[in-house]
Amino acid sequence: MNLIVAADKNWAIGKENELLVRIPADQKFFRETTTGKVVVMGRKTLESFPGGLPLKKRTNIVLTHDENYKVPDAIIVHTMEELHEELKKYNSEDIYVIGGETIYRQLLDECDVAHVTKIDYAFDADTYFPNLDEKPEWEITADSEEQTYFDLEYYFYKYEKKKAVQ
Q: Which fold would CATH assign to domain 2-161?
């Protein structure tokens, strides 16, 4: 399973249910990486999308405790058990966890690959992603040249979970 996230230098990912910044190249990377795949998110992440609607050309799975929550063109699950049952239907390599903070924390240990757009700036934020640089089981296996968007510098990183030595 994969995850994809944009984080600032403090691993912050959002404020008041909004992205910290919208970088066109990052959004393009997200779109190209997840189109045709399965995206897993929490209810608040879904509600942060335009019109609160699921992402087009993807299988949208939303985890929420709200038993009455309904949204067209999305699969709604209410427990981790229900989520895991649903995910069994798909190839693990085609599944992308896309947020928010709670969902990332719940599913991080089940992911093998993390696509992180790291923004070299500290934003005012209220939601964070776990710091993969402090987790010895994760290592950077690919990175990009420095990118810029106006005065922001950012990098695309691919982290992979180290394989356990047999």
A: Dihydrofolate Reductase, subunit A (3.40.430)
Dihedrals phi, psi of 136, to nearest 5 degrees? -60, -20
In terms of C-beta density within 10 A (0-12 exposed, 13-18 middle, 19 or more buried), how is residue 97 classed? buried
- For the chain, the farthest-separated pair of C-alpha atoms sits apart, in whole angstroms, at 48
pLDDT in the model for residue 148: 97
The string of pLDDT tens digits covering residues 63-90 is 999 999 999 999 999 999 999 999 999 9
Does the pLDDT of residue 165 top 90, yes or no? no
pLDDT reading at 58 higher than 80: yes
For the chain, the domains span 2-161
- Which pLDDT value is given to residue 166? 59
pLDDT at 163: 80
C-beta separation of 110 from 51 below 8 A: no
> How many whole angstroms separate alpha carbon 95 and alpha carbon 88?
10
Half-sphere exposure of 69 (CA within 13 A, CB side): 19
